[in-house]
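Sample 1 of the test manifest.
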Amino acid sequence: MSATAEPPYRFPGTVAIAAAVAGHEQLAPGESSGTVVTVAGRVMLSRPQGRLAFAELRDWTGAVQLFALAATTERFEELTRLSLGDWIGCTGEVVRTKRGELSVEVATWTLLAATRHGFGDKWRGVHDVDLRYRQREVDLWANERVRETFLLRSKVVAAIRRRLDARGFVEVETPVLQPLPGGANARPFVTHFNALHADFYLRVAPELYLKRLVVGGFERVYELGRDFRNEGLSPRHNPEFTMLEAYQAYADYGDMAELVEDLVAGTAAELLGTTEIEFQGRRVDLAPPWRRASLAEVVSEVTGEECDLAMGRDALAAVAGRLGVEVDAAFGAGRILYEIYERTTEHELTGPVHVMDYPVEVSPLVRAHRSKDGAVERMTPIVGGREIAEIYSELCDPDVQRSRLVAQAAAREAGDDEAMVVDEEFLRALEHGMPPTGGIGLGIDRLVMLFADLPTIREVLLFPALRLDRPAELGEEDGEDAASDAHGLAPGS
RNA sequence: GGGCCGCUAGCUCAUCGGGUAGAGCGGGGGACUUUUAAUCCCAAGGUGCCGGGAUCGAGACCCGGGCGGCCCA
């Protein structure tokens, strides 16, 4: 290559490739459009052909063939020597070649960045999943569907915000660093707050803070953000994941079920053009209303075993035994029923179905069912064998909530490290009076998996958590110094 | 945490009953005035994941470890 000119600081006037090509479908082979465009992107294929050359230029909206002629294209030789993956910007007329390919006939062009590494086999791409996750920037170029998935994810998030905003919800941000972990049964990450000389926790859920905002008069409030749970890595779990939580005053779980149905089905219709989707071989129609069925009912349907909370602990334990579900001696009737459901039934439900009438034992933040003893007003909608949301009539009574949390804390003392703790600030807020409120939690990662028909969470996370592929260096002394320097921290400040 | 499978050139993959490795693509050089994964010619490119062991000899066999995948807990 000739002398390497420094890339420009800006390259103005570009038009998206998809837009540059649009409207020229009628151009006949060999015909020129008279329209001159400037496009930019990566050269992903190159076919030099002596005194003329072809290449494929791709940006995030699409691809177009570049057509160059030694006689009319500037620095023609250099253009034919580009590596696959180099960024260029170019200006030329939209034409259709003799062989019928819509192209930009390059007049002038600029190298915007050279690549030092390839983007995989140009035909087969990159399949090594380890490489794909660790170098997602490569994956995004090598595998078209990956890019589409993540663009879809962004659209899903935007669409959900729009729908909530349209219903009068306001988005807020509550602490990620919390002095006590709360709002879900999960192990938290612990970190140290130097200035306060105290350990803090990365939130496992924003729930308790959002409810305090309802107490504070935020009648429709939501937060869409990251939660952290200190659990193992698996195809279905990532330690950090994205959750929507929304709370609506004066509403119950039935109202909130309708909200979830609208968020899911409405977004599907908007982005996929249909509510009928296929997830891992199962066809599902997301069009509301969704079936509602009690937990005992669906367990009976799937297993053929009659069961009901009212049967009592011993009878349910016997059912569990017949179904091969292990039961801890400390479990009560509700917990046993829930274990049976989780092990035998949940994955079999294609849905969409709201599973309801959960036992109070496994639902410490949910209000008691208005008519069914031992049950709470909670629904979990299941689609394609997976839980995609939680829907509650929120527990508002400070005394009941206190006794539930005290019971949780006791379980924690007894060794259940996923059990909750007593949060006095939260309880004091409830004492100020929380109106009847409905709440939802909607897993964004799972929703994207559903819409994109992908079986693993890693395919919908740009940078999923992975084991370190080399020893961590930051803990070492010179490593820390280097990090400070690299961030340009002002010396002596 | 347990079981099974995988790890070979930058990428995608071969090779073998143990005798120190190949192809396509990419990258380098050359030819080519309508290509579509262009084609053709030339040369280069390997710590066979890491560490041990048995063997005259190991990428292959044995042991340990790492990372990944799938399944189970």
